[in-house]
């Protein structure tokens, strides 16, 4: 069968928010401590305790937004613990991620708000803070916003100045808790709606004191329809929830999606394809959340944030700080998630892969004296040209593979068809950028890409992972193997480009139109 990717320039979907290429950095295992923050350890170059090898890799990705401090960690975190002279900061055990148990040290609070803001500044990235709803209170959340953003003369702004930051940090994104249906308080949707209302009421109130009303508030949603609908319905009963209303409370609704099939490096063919099928559920999660918003907050422009997503293999457990091998298979699944998010540029306002360093489907891995990129990092690097460009409707005509019972926590149903080629495209300043993956594990594909333009020049074409086995994973010594190779597609000049996509590969084509 012919494989075709058609890029419909006459059908723009919307601007791809650069924040779709964001990350989550949690106080969990070796993500913050070890991966980002090493303090006085002189085995790697640092600036203010932050390791520069990690920073340099993340800078190359143009990392747009970082979510912090969790994750589940956030709903048992008190931000004032992480301020002031480090030796005087309280050591605490956080309820999550076994801190304080066995060999996992307690939270030292060495990395707090100022260190996080410094990291964001070094990366040129937007901070996205998750406030403590489960074990905190609205006052604590508003104080944090005042500490970070207020530019007047108060006790908290003086405290900020004492900690080295005269100028406000201007943090725009504020998540009202994390997974509040689970670790973040085990609320019912109706209970969370009431918590959300309280927190958002005060944060919005603070926002009004600020002349620019710049806070964007994120509500915790769920991949199930029932949570989102019950939460939104209950909230709508009490208040106006969307932008443009009298007292709007919500700017974004978030969902999380993790998936796995088989183990990190050992999987059958069936499990290989099942993982890809599961990754493709992220797009469906977004569609479901968008439908719920359409029903309960029609006419608003509340965005959808997938603020945790990625592969979570059975090898990543509490006791190893959720570390797993990072393979080519994982990276291919990330490419297909990013294609799905690009395709939904009209509703998706942010996404954060979990997590930045060392934990789960990380982008960077470290040991004591070096840092290296994972295969998934290379996908983010190849896709970064989509950031801020206009997504174009992209129609893929490819063979599919039937996968049995992809089941998840809310469905165990039968068969799912995984398209063996996924793609997305965007346009900016006379250039169309197309990314596509041949997900077939064993067979190469010739792919015909058509772009609506009768004069197309090929700028540049690159391929990732050609010829690499799907179970190959990154280590300190082999990271070079995952870097892109230049390829030479056949350009017919009339809008048709024919490209050979090796088995299990991801390609990026830049075209002048
Ligand atoms: O990313 C790991 C954990 O997964 C996060 O802390 C939590 O929000 C989710 O369950």
Automatic annotation (TrEMBL):
<dbReference type="Pfam" id="PF22848">
    <property type="entry name" value="ASD1_dom"/>
</dbReference>
<dbReference type="InterPro" id="IPR013780">
    <property type="entry name" value="Glyco_hydro_b"/>
</dbReference>
<dbReference type="InterPro" id="IPR017853">
    <property type="entry name" value="GH"/>
</dbReference>
<feature type="domain" description="Alpha-L-arabinofuranosidase C-terminal">
    <location>
        <begin position="307"/>
        <end position="505"/>
    </location>
</feature>
<dbReference type="InterPro" id="IPR055235">
    <property type="entry name" value="ASD1_cat"/>
</dbReference>
<comment type="similarity">
    <text>Belongs to the glycosyl hydrolase 51 family.</text>
</comment>
<dbReference type="InterPro" id="IPR010720">
    <property type="entry name" value="Alpha-L-AF_C"/>
</dbReference>
<dbReference type="GO" id="GO:0000272">
    <property type="term" value="P:polysaccharide catabolic process"/>
</dbReference>
<keyword id="KW-0326">Glycosidase</keyword>
<keyword id="KW-0378">Hydrolase</keyword>
<dbReference type="GO" id="GO:0046556">
    <property type="term" value="F:alpha-L-arabinofuranosidase activity"/>
</dbReference>
<dbReference type="Pfam" id="PF06964">
    <property type="entry name" value="Alpha-L-AF_C"/>
</dbReference>
<keyword id="KW-0119">Carbohydrate metabolism</keyword>
<dbReference type="GO" id="GO:0046373">
    <property type="term" value="P:L-arabinose metabolic process"/>
</dbReference>
<protein>
    <recommendedName>
        <fullName>non-reducing end alpha-L-arabinofuranosidase</fullName>
        <ecNumber>3.2.1.55</ecNumber>
    </recommendedName>
</protein>
């Amino acid at each position: 069968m012919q494989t075709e990717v058609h890029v419909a320039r006459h059908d723009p979907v919307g601007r791809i928010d650069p924040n779709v290429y964001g990350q989550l950095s949690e106080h969990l295992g070796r993500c913050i401590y070890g991966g980002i923050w090493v303090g006085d350890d002189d085995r790697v170059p640092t600036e203010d305790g932050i390791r520069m090898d990690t920073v340099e890799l993340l800078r190359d990705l143009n990392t747009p937004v970082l979510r912090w401090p969790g994750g589940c960690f956030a709903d048992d975190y008190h931000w004032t613990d992480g301020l002031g002279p480090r030796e005087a900061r309280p050591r605490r055990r956080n309820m999550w991620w076994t801190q304080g148990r066995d060999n996992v040290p307690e939270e030292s609070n060495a990395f707090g708000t100022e260190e996080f803001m410094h990291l964001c500044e070094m990366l040129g990235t937007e901070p996205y803070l998750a406030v403590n709803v489960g074990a905190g209170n609205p006052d604590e959340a508003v104080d944090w916003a005042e500490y970070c953003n207020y530019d007047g003369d108060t006790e908290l702004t003086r405290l900020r100045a004492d900690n080295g930051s005269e100028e406000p940090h201007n943090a725009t994104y504020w998540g009202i808790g994390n997974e509040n249906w689970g670790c973040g308080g085990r609320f019912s949707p109706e209970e969370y709606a009431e918590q959300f209302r309280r927190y958002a009421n005060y944060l919005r109130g603070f926002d009004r004191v600020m002349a620019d009303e710049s806070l964007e508030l994120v509500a915790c949603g769920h991949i199930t329809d029932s949570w989102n609908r019950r939460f939104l319905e209950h909230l709508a009963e009490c208040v106006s929830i969307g932008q443009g209303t009298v007292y709007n409370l919500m700017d974004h609704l978030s969902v999380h999606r993790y998936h796995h099939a088989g183990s990190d490096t050992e999987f059958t063919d069936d499990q290989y394809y099942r993982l890809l099928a599961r990754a493709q559920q992220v797009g469906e999660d977004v569609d479901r959340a968008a439908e719920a918003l359409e029903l309960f907050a029609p006419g608003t422009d509340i965005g959808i944030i997938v603020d945790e997503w990625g592969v979570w293999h059975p090898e990543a457990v509490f006791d190893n700080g959720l570390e797993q091998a990072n393979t080519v298979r994982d990276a291919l699944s990330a490419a297909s998630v990013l294609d799905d998010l690009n395709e939904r540029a009209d509703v998706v306002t942010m996404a954060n892969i979990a997590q930045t360093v060392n934990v789960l489907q990380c982008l960077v891995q470290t040991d004591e004296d070096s840092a290296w990129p994972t295969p998934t990092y290379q996908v983010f690097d190849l896709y970064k040209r989509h950031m801020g460009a206009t997504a174009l409707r992209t129609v893929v005509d490819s063979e599919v593979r039937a996968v049995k019972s992809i089941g998840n926590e809310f469905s165990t149903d039968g068969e799912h068809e995984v398209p063996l080629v996924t793609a997305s495209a965007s346009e900016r300043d006379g250039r169309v950028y197309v990314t596509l993956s041949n997900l077939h594990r064993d067979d190469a594909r010739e792919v015909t890409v058509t772009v609506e333009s009768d004069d197309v020049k090929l700028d540049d074409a690159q391929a990732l992972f050609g010829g690499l086995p799907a179970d190959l994973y990154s280590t300190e010594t082999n990271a070079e193997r995952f870097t892109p190779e230049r390829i030479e597609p056949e350009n017919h000049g009339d809008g048709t480009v024919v490209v050979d996509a090796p088995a299990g590969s991801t390609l990026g084509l830049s075209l002048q139109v």
